[in-house]
Amino acid sequence: MTTKHEQILFYIESLEVGSKISVRQIAKAMDVSEGTAYRAIKDAEARGIVSTIERVGTVRIEKQEKKNIERLTFAEVVNIVEGTVLGGREGLHKTLSKFVIGAMKIDAMLKYVDRDSLLIVGNRESVHQASLEHGAAVLITGGFDTSEEVKELADSLALPLISSAYDTFTIATLINRAIDDRLIKKEILLVEDLVNREKEPPVTLQVGDTVGDWQRLMEQTGHTRFPIVDPEGRVHGIVTSKDVAGVPGEQTLERVMTKSPRTVTGRTSVASAAHTMVWEGIELLPVVEHRKLVGVISRQDVLRALQYNQNQPQGQTIQDLILSGFEEVREDRSVRLSGTVTPIMTNQLGSINPGVLMTLINEAGELAIRRLKNSDMVVENVTVYFLKPIQIDSQVTILADVIDIGRKFGKVDVEIYSGSDLMGKALFTAQVLER
User: Which Pfam families match (predicted)?
Assistant: First the structure.
């Protein structure tokens, strides 16, 4: 039996894209409290099927596929530029394919404007109208307004007409930054990328099945680990060959299974799932949605995905910016990173940010272990003994020396120098994912 929360989510998903949603409306339609409706709407927003826009409200939007995640909706643009919607609210759920800066004569400008694009322009009413007629939305800079005729045209075409107090350069920078953030998210592997829901559902056993049922299913599939679910599809446990070893065939699995096992959702990152599996010694993780089983991932699935992702082009993250100015030197059992403290790496006092130092410690530790074991790994612990302030423009050297290495772990002693002065010391420990 589905819960009220799940019923509300199903109801929201059934609404047409572009529909406005409110807590009061949902509470009345589903006969629930406003608190329950509010929590469900926030969950729907986290799942990417609704978006909340200031001074407009909450709107049902099309959930973006991961391959198109870098494309922003006009609703998101409104939030990014802190804009006001002057017209065309019905089109806020649409995605923009590109944006064009209107800093030229109208005839030349319209050569670059096409359907689903966004024209960023100042107080030029004729340009606003021409852009809408060409199928493009308009973002007016400087906080300017436009005529009622243009607003009515935007409404009739369902093309957003937005005004923002920011200047053109600031708006372009904000939108570019948002797109770059989306590209980075696109490169982060999620569990849902590993679960193909178009295939047959995962093989399971039911609550009430016996060890004999496990034996027959094991012979049919060749697998030894299975989720235990109830008739509603909710996960109650996991059973493995270790659990049933030496147990009579008539014994129910409820007596021997691992109850309330760890689960993940499709939005969990593969790196987080890998850490959970290594940390807790788990070989199989159930994947749930609305608390119901939708798939399973194995440790082998996670390793293959992480190894594949390492070979793909990556966007520029804060970590990339930090490490771009450092050179790596490898020795027998150690790694040395050398570079300069740049302004982006400092705090308000002009010394290196502790978070930046932690990034350098982690990178040096991983490189040192990977020098001896070419495997993926997850950080288990970083113990920092002391850190001293290092000023901007100082030369920094991070020396990572492997002090212990095993089949499934590695320990690294990390020292941080500025010139010949020891400025920090840490112990880095990681669990190695066997291939």
Answer: 4HBT, CBS, DRTGG
